[in-house]
Amino acid sequence: MSKKDGCILRVENLEVGFDLRTGFVKAVRGIDLSIPEGKTVALLGESGCGKSLTGMAILRILEEPGRISGGAIRFCHSDGSTEDLAALDEDSKQLMKLRGGEIALISQDARSALTPVYTIGEQIVEMILAHESTSKADAWNRAVSLLAEVGIPAPERRVREYPYQMSGGMCQRALIAMALSCGPRLLIADEPTTALDVTIQAQVLNLLRALQRDKRMSILIITHDMGVVAEMADEVHVMYLGKIVESGDSNTIFRNPQHPYTMGLFTSIPLPDSDPDAPLSHIRGVVPDISHTPEGCPFRGRCPLEMEQCTTMPPKFEMGDGHSVACWLSDPAHGGDS
Fold this sequence. Notes:
Blueprint lengths: L6 E14 L2 E14 L3 E5 L6 H9 L6 E11 L5 E3 L8 H6 L4 E4 L3 H4 L6 H12 L4 H14 L5 H4 L9 H13 L5 E5 L7 H18 L2 E6 L2 H7 L2 E6 L2 E7 H6 L4 H8 L49 E4 L2 E3 L13
Parallel strand pairs: 3-8, 3-9, 6-7, 7-8
Antiparallel strand pairs: 1-2, 1-4, 4-5, 9-10, 10-12, 11-12
Helix pairs in contact: 4-5, 5-7
């Protein structure tokens, strides 16, 4: 990977799991994804599919007993050099500089992410001083400017307030301001609107889009919400039980989903003109425990189109124009038309 190929980050055959008493259990099982510079890539799937674990692995903030067991996470720095983040020591200066610097995180629960005993301004200033050689006064002025930039009114007053003095939407904006404090080139947004009401969700998404346009940031958005994906994503990776089962640009995935899991996600959404008395469509069953994954296709056992071939893990079949599907139904030899 190089700066010339247009990707800021490339994940190659990444494996993440947990050391348990019964042995090592894989939760992310050999995934590949690329994040182009200045674009938004969505990782979509139900809870328990390994999406957030992937984001934590990229930032190398996995807690024991979790660990990366294989693969590479290649990050392209602003000077064009490339580094495998998976190969770095967790306490290395390179990673400390990278986190909050070139790569920043917005978590799904802003109130938990913000420290309750420090003011918003103190927390933003601490982030700036940790990554840049500047005075505390300049860092404080930048904190005020950042709060204004993310749409917080009266930033000179708010910067001296504590998280409990702000609404959920305000805290999320403050967290975005903190993430932007050192000018990251990649922003990882893990369910950034989950705890917010619909109106505030729209405001936060509009803010992220505007910031990306102005700053040419890349964004990896981790979500189960297809409305968020439709609003934000240029490219989509559908994840199920630690595997990416379908990938493509947003228009392709929404207009022509091919994997039964992706199709199930879409048919589970009630439409505005749906019969209110009709039963809601749903995907049968639940995501299995990672220690009891089925042999073969990970969706086996829940799939309404399951066939004998599904006992073998399907490869990725290329459908054209960057659209790939890991399903035997997409194999010409088993009824597919790719």
